[in-house]
Amino acid sequence: DSVRIGVKEGDSIARPLGQSPLFPPMVIQMLAIGEETGALDTMLNKVSDFYDAEVSATVEAMTSLLEPVLIVFLGVIVGGIVVALYLPIFSLITQFTKQG
Prior knowledge:
86% helix; mainly alpha
């Protein structure tokens, strides 16, 4: 709300946003430069590209960490299924060899 009120009163966009803890200083500086040079749309696009790349890098890092965990998890499940299937067969074989 303070941003909206400030802009309605003729203040720049960067000043009220700078008072908010939600926006990092880099974004505020880029918005201020964009307002001063008349290239606010270009600066907003650059900020958008920066955060887009940051989100992509974070998702890629989390995915690369998650893949080995999933592989181990699936390996344990498959190993459990194999043991559950072959254990009765081996117990039958040992019973037949003891009787025969």
